[in-house]
Structures are given as structure tokens and as C-alpha cells.
Amino acid sequence: MADHPPRPTTLDSYDLEEVDVPFGERDAPVRATRITIHGTNIFMRALEPIVRVGDVQVLYPRIQPDEKTIVGYLTTTPPEGARIELAYRGQGSVAAAEPFTIKKLRRS
Amino acid sequence: MPDPTTMSHFPFAGNFEYDAGPTTVPAPGEFPDPAPLELKAVVYFPADTAGATDPSQISDRWDDYPMVVVVHGNSGSLLSYEGYNYLLEHLARNGMIAASIHVYPGAAGVSRARALFKHIEILKTKFGGSIDLDRLGIMGHSRGGEAVVIASKLNVDEGLGYGFRAIVSLAPTDQYGPYSLSGPYAVPYLVVYGGLDGDVSGSWPKSTGFSLFDRADPVKSMIFAERACHDRFNTQWDSNDFYFGQLTAADQAQVVSEDAHQKIVNGYMNAFFRWRLFDDDGMRKYFTGESIPDAVEDADGGAVTVDVQYREPHGLLVDGFANGDWHTNDLGGAVTSSLVSSPAEGDLNALDSFSPHDHTGGELVWSAGQHTYTTALPPIDDDVHRYRMLSFRMTQRYNSSSNPAGADQDFRVTLTDEDGRSHHVDVAHYARLDYPFTRGIPSLIKSSLKTVRIPLRAFKHDNHGQHDVDLKEIVSVAFDFGVKPTGDVEVTDIEFVPDAKEA
Question: Is residue A87 within 8 Å of residue A49, measured between CB atoms?
Fold first, then answer.
């Protein structure tokens, strides 16, 4: 019996918000959709996380120190119903319970 | 020779923390750019009295001291930088100013590297002339282990002028580059990595310290501590990598204690910094594979086992298997074989998906009836008498039907001279060619090379009354695998090396 039983990652819900993001020090702000995914055991690891919504890669996904939240940016709108997935390279992915819908977008 | 794990030159280590406030560092390609940074660090220094907490209380025994700066890896903890106090104190007691810096959770490679430079400037103001700026070492763990490699590149590309003389990567990622300590960026390099790493586990090719090691120019060494994990090197991280799904319950039970992890770090890193920053050549033996620090060997009742890779400069490289044609070695000499199949040559990971390396190599498969491999030295390169060692890197191929699981391999190496005199030695006398270390998830098992070094004098002794082999006119190096009935090995960097004191 392991002293450290597995702590599976879950992605439970997400929020979408329209934001202007400065990608790069000299770059002008870019209109993007910030996606904030909520779950459990979203570990801050050495490996960079990979987040996809369908075939669209989430830019700069950043796990928060609470290890329950991951924040990233979309500059392309994924299709309705696409799966939201978190993975580490070479390892299996975890999908969010609810599929993507642009209807959740909060416009600023 | 004192054990670098337990030795101490100074009776006390003073320490303090500083917080110079928030700032930013440029981080092109990362987000956000610029990256926020809070200039916090913990610092230890050699002291003559207990309780020293101010840089002015640094020991006056020496005029100045080398300095080592540590950058941690990624974690949700804001106290990660305090997780190496055991190392900082040990380095301070051995004559080094040692600091560990804070970076924010989530920071990537470049911003971690640039944070190092910010802190070196602060430390210069605190210690003034007590720091010997030509004797700087940097050590990074995990993402930090890749950041120290990036730091060497930035130091050169931007003409920053820091006198890095030793770089150490502890369980590093290799995910932001590929970066390499080669060419103008080369600095003496040490990699320490655990065979039961639950985070940087090698889940995709060329993603660990093995590949960083391979791409670095010598002098360099890699300590593969088979039962070490990722997080137990940092006292703030507990054993969190056990939760990342890369270690089975049986793996977790094999991981050595936190105490053993600290002894690995203290022993090898103090030895490396002593070797490179103090020119203490007595420490080199720990990086050639000749010796293991006693306290490391005895940790957890002898449970710590290490495989060592070592390469030094100024050798005569006979074959790094880089030309794509197994019939010819890198010197242009002919290669002949009588093996089960023609030697395979190329990128090691392409030859064997279990190989963690970023290097070319050859694969040699033998049977009882077909078991010889001979590589010739062209006449222009046949004088090897000024070298002291024959060196090569080799591993059993994991999961090959030719290698009995769990069993050692052995073979004979023969040098032959122009007059037909030859002499052979058994490899098992110099290195153990054991089966690759296994772990519960098969895709994470590694056909990991280790360095075999055979003194050339071994080819001259006990020559059965015959004349010695003439090292001034060697015509070939041969491997005779007939010692064991079947086998399958990967090999590279067959070379004669000087075994130089000042490698």
C-alpha cells in the first residue's frame, strides 16, 4: 500500500472573460479570451502544463499557487462543444466536466 | 581525503535573509513579460563565531570567498527558496558564500535565469570585496536546473561578464530550449538526477538532465542516483512528486529517505564546487566514477546506488558514432564486426525509445558465435601513449531479448599495436555493466549510459611474458563480447583521454 495514494486531477468548471493582454513587453495589448479553469489537484510541477480546447491551444497556461485554478488565454475561438483538456507532455490528459461554449463569455 | 558530505573547514556558518523588494526582469517568450520578481533570498557565509547574521561578520581567515547562488524549481510554495538551507550551510562551512533566491510560482526558464543576475548584484553590495567574482558557481533545481544553463548563454550573449566556473543542474527540466553548455557557453558542468523522479520523469524524449548533459561540452559529470526522486531534494516540498502519477506504490517504497537525498546533494555538490572553485583536484574522483562519498554510500544502510558519466576535454575521440556510417569511425578508421547484425548507428533515442540521451551512438548485438567489434585507428592517430585512459559510454539496452533481465554484462577490450601485439582486459574489472534500473511504469525506464574508464597501463601489465603493447602505434580497439552468450549494448564516445588533473 502506498504511503501516498494517488490524488487525481479534476477539472470541474471554467469561466471565460474578454480581456486585453500585453503579449510581450513591447507588444500592443491583444484582445483575447481569458479562460480560468477550476478543479482539484492541479499540481504546480516542473513541467509546463498544456491546455487545449479542442484543437485550439491555450496560450500561457499558468497554474495558480492554490493548485485549484489554471489561467490561460485564447486568441482563437474554439468550436462549441469542444473538450477542455489539461496534460503534461508525454502523459495522459484530463478533461473538464463541461464542454466549451462561448455563451459563458463575459464581455468587458 | 575527507568526505565532501561531512567535511567542514569553518566551525560556523552565519546566515541572514534579505528582501530588497519587488522588481521585474525581461522574459521574452514568457508570460508575463516582463516577469515580476521579489528580491528575496537566504544567505549563508563562513563565520568564526556562532550566531553571525551580518555579512560584515564573514570569517577573516581568507581575503575573499567564492560564491554559489541557487535557484529553485516550480512549486506552489512561496518558501521553495528555503528548501536548500542544508546545502547552503554545508557550502558555507566549506568556504563559500551561498545564497538561495526566491522566484514566483509559475516562472519559466529565462525569468529564473535573469533573477540570478539580479541577486548576484545585490550580494556584491552586501559582501563587497569578500566575494571573489571570478569564482562563481550556480546551481538550479528542476526548472532552475535548466535556468542555470540559460544563464550561461545570457552571460555570454549579453556580455555580462560573470565569472561562472561551475554549473550544477539538479533534476533539471529540458523543456525551454534546447539550450546547451557548449561552445562559448561551456562551463564545467554537473548533473544530478534521480531514477525515481516523479516529476521530470522523462515522459518524452530528451527531456531530462541526460540530454542537457549530452549537449554540454566537457568537462562534465552526471550522477544518476537510481533511487532518488524529485521533491525530496527540497525540504519545503516533502514528497509531492509521488502524487503526479509517475511513481507506482512499489516505486515509492524504493525511494531513499530525505536524509539520503540531502547527503547526495551535500556530498556531490560540495565536492564539485570544491573541485572547480578551489582547484581541489582530490575531489575529481567522485565525478569520474572512481569513488562515491562515504556518507552517500552508507546512506539508508547502503540503499543509494549511483551510475556516473564523465567526460573530459582534450581527448582523442575515436568514435562518437556521428557520421552515420558504421563502417567508418570518426577518425576515418575502418570498423569491422562479427555480430548478430550490422552495428546500428545514429541518434540513440531513434535506435532505442528507452534511451534518454540526446547523442549519437551505436548498438551492438552479439551471440555466442558472433561477438566481435573492432574499430581501427588511422596511422596519423595511432600514438596514444600521452593519454592515460581509454574511455567510452555504454549501457545495456533495456528490454532487449539478448539481455537477461537483471543480469550484468561483461566483455573484453583489446588493444592491438602495429606489430600485432595485443592485450585484453575484462570490463567488469573497471565498471559494472548492470541491467538498466527499472521502475513501475515501463515507458519511464531508461537505457542510461555510464562511463567506463580503463587505465592504459592495464594493457601493459601481466602480458604473459610477451613484449608490452606499444601505445605509440596502436592500430585498433576491439570489443570481444564472447564472455557472455548473448547481449545488446549501446555505446558512444570511444576515446583516449588524458585523465588530466586540470580537466
Answer: yes
Q: Are B175 and A89 within 8 A, CB to CB?
A: yes
Report the amino acid identity of residue B312.
Answer: E
User: Nearest residue of A to residue B239 by CA position?
Assistant: A4
Residue B220: give the domain boundaries: 12-311
* ipTM at complex level: 0.93
> What is the CATH number for B353?
2.60.120.260
Minimal Cα–Cα distance from A21 to chain B, Å? 9
Q: What is the mean pLDDT of each run of 10 residues along chain B (503 residues)?
A: 95 98 93 93 98 97 98 96 98 98 96 98 97 97 98 98 98 97 98 98 96 97 98 96 95 97 98 97 96 97 97 96 96 97 96 98 97 97 95 98 97 96 95 97 97 95 72 97 97 96 69
Residue A81 contacts B where some CB pair is shorter than 8 Å: no
Using CA coordinates, name the residue in chain A closest to B142: A46
3-state SS of B386-402 is CCCEEEEEEEECCCCCC
- β B131-141/B65-71 pair status: parallel
10 Å Cβ neighbour count for B437?
18
Which of B28, B142, B243 comes nearest A7 by C-beta? B243
A22 to chain B nearest CA, in Å? 8
* Residue A48 near chain B (CB below 8 Å): yes
From B313, B371, B329, select the one nearest B186 (Cα to Cα).
B313
| Whole-prediction pTM | 0.97
Dist. CA B35–CA A10, nearest whole Å? 29
Out of A43, A46, A92, the one facing B200 most closely (by C-beta) is A46
- Which residues in chain A have their CB less than 8 angstroms from residue B208's CB? none
**B237 contact residues in A (CB cutoff 8 A):** none
Domains along chain A?
10-106 (2.60.40)
Same domain, B255 and B339: no
